[in-house]
Specification:
Elements lengths: L1 H14 L3 H4 L9 H15 L3 H9 L9 H13 L3 H10 L9 H13 L3 H13 L5 H19 L11 H14 L4 H9 L9 H11 L3 H10 L7 H11 L3 H6 L6 H18 L3 H14 L7 H10 L3 H8 L7 H19 L1 H12 L7 H13 L3 H14 L5 H16 L3 H14 L4 H13 L4 H14 L4 H13 L3 H14 L4 H13 L3 H13 L5 H13 L5
């Protein structure tokens, strides 16, 4: 409430600071209703209530022609509400006025001019974008990339003197080659999909799309067979499914590198993804919506919008997006089920979420390995360990016992056995997992910590944790485990070193704070110990039985709990 009030006060100050800065020509034209609706609209927009915000803004339209912040916010809301065409029309009405001087406005006008193939106007808008992009790295990337693409679209050849943006250049180069249908296109795609970065697996879709356009069906099948869908993102999993069912039309229809709009859509999705990775979800949503406007058939891109809404706990908006995923496409349908399960769990509790999940799972006649694996993991997360174990066991009977994925399932089944205190079975699975993948830091950590909790094979556990630490030195969980191991053998100095690092990375974890408190107490830093124990009581993830133990520690120290 107070943050919204402060925002309104700030806007008021901005609004009344003078005609040059605020671009308000005649403040007397506006009555209190206009201002009230405008500020109410801003607050609603800030709360992601876009429909409500739009209604308020439409009630204060007298401000639109004379106040830059109004028009800027109004345009953003229109885009968020899937009214990008209207946003562009409003911008065109204001072309000769001062209030259009903002980056997003000229970006939309530029994209519209490209659609109209009016490249003279495109370059004019590009010049404006250049002026407005100097203090923002992402805006600068947008400007430089659009400069190259407009040159490409107008001249049917590549711009030579490009700015260097690392792997972004490789992506752009690939799409440029594809657009021009150059001989080196295939090599560019091969290089792009061979990049080790996980996010780049997405471009296997575009490679398959290109091969289909070239009628290289057999190569498509070979490429699809090599893809491990168990570790693939949603787009690639669904693409493989389309290939296996020979639904090539679906792949061809949603993207073409010969269409300017599709290339720009993909580029702006990339920008949206960059903003999302930085936690700037409102800006990310803006670019996802523009991407969808340019290529509405590419439904997958909306998954980022759904994810952003879920991160912001805007569950109604997220569900509206998820409804766009067709149940006829198995991977898309399952994605929708998983996300809706999460939403139900957050809003209504695990019991209702499990009921929903089971109902939807039964609708899938032939669930693939990935769906079975996801289902088992979800049941494990819901503490339904018996069910999880049954499905992990089913998966192990299907898969080859020498694969990394097989090792991962053993690790997860072992974890469920451990939660059920079936330690012999748990140890057997976890040790077998390590045989297949000896340096898996998280399996090493899980098994070692399980042994520490049982006061079992402490020295071997420490050795395992040292190996895990070498592999994942920044993992707060591994830092916590190894620190706790040294605490158990009385090496409090070493223990404090590791726990201090863990708590710096994850300061709000109850277990890490509890462990750190025990170690500080043993180092005779009792006030600091009590500080961390007391913080455990305030954390929302702290379970009730842990709270009771912590209360005793605060009174008597760790040895009396």
């Amino acid at each position: 409430m107070y943050s919204n009030l402060i925002k309104v006060i700030f806007i008021l100050i901005l609004f009344y600071q003078g005609p040059v800065q605020s671009k308000v020509k005649d403040i007397n034209k506006f009555d209190h209703k206009d201002l009230s609706n405008y500020f109410s609209g801003l607050i609603s927009f800030n709360q992601n209530k876009n429909t409500e915000a739009l209604n308020f803004f439409n009630s204060a339209k007298i401000l639109k022609d004379q106040h830059t912040p109004y028009l800027q916010s109004y345009i953003k809301i229109l885009v968020q509400e899937k009214k990008t065409n209207i946003a562009i029309k409003e911008l065109k009405k204001n072309l000769n006025k001062e209030n259009i001087d903002f980056f997003e406005g000229y970006l939309l006008l530029l994209l519209d001019s490209v659609q109209q193939k009016d490249f003279k106007k495109s370059k004019q808008y590009l010049s404006k974008i250049s002026e407005l992009s100097q203090n923002n790295t992402f805006n600068l990337i947008i400007y430089e990339s659009l400069k190259n693409y407009i040159y490409l679209f107008e001249n049917k050849k590549k711009f030579v003197n490009k700015s260097k943006f690392g792997n972004l250049n490789l992506i752009a180069e690939t799409f440029e080659n594809c657009y021009l249908d150059l001989n080196e296109t295939k090599n560019s795609y091969t290089k792009l999909v061979s990049t080790n970065e996980p996010d780049y697996s997405r471009y296997k879709f575009f490679y398959i799309n290109y091969l289909l356009k070239k009628n290289q069906i057999e190569q498509v099948r070979k490429l699809a067979k090599k893809i491990n869908t168990n570790r693939s993102n949603l787009l690639i999993s669904q693409t493989v499914e389309w290939v296996e069912s020979e639904n090539f039309k679906k792949i061809n229809d949603i993207f073409s590198c010969s269409e300017e709009n599709h290339i720009l859509s993909e580029f702006l999705y990339l920008i949206a993804n960059l903003y999302s990775s930085e936690g700037i979800y409102d800006v990310s949503n803006f670019y996802v919506n523009i991407s969808n406007f340019l290529n509405p058939k590419f439904i997958y891109n909306l998954s980022l919008l759904a994810e952003n809404h879920i991160f912001n706990k805007n569950y109604t908006l997220a569900k509206n997006i998820l409804n766009k995923f067709d149940k006829k496409d198995q991977s898309y349908f399952w994605y929708k089920v998983k996300k809706n399960t999460l939403i139900i769990s957050e809003k209504s509790g695990d019991e209702k979420a499990i009921k929903f999940l089971n109902l939807q799972f039964k609708k899938i006649k032939k669930p693939n390995v990935k769906i079975l694996y996801d289902y088992a993991n979800l049941m494990k997360n819901f503490q339904e360990h018996d069910i999880a174990i049954n499905y992990y066991t089913k998966l192990l009977s299907i898969l080859k016992n020498d694969s990394i994925f097989y090792s991962e399932i053993l690790y997860r089944r072992g974890g469920s056995y451990e939660r059920l205190e079936l330690f012999e079975k748990s140890d057997e699975d976890l040790l077998q997992s390590l045989k297949l993948n000896p340096e898996d830091a998280y399996v090493l950590n899980y098994l070692a910590y399980s042994w520490l909790e049982r006061n079992f094979k402490i020295e071997i556990a420490i050795d395992m944790l040292e190996r895990a630490y070498k592999k994942e030195s920044d993992s707060p969980y591994i830092l916590d485990s190894i620190g706790w191991a040294y605490y158990l053998i009385g090496d409090y100095i070493k223990a404090e070193k590791f726990l201090k690092q863990a708590i710096e990375i994850m300061p709000y974890d109850p277990i890490i704070n509890d462990h750190y408190g025990d170690i500080l107490w043993s180092l005779n830093r009792k006030m600091q110990a009590q500080y961390h124990w007391k913080s455990v009581l305030k954390l929302e993830d702290t379970e009730n039985d842990m709270k009771e133990k912590i209360k005793l520690k605060i009174l008597f120290g760790p040895k009396n709990t």
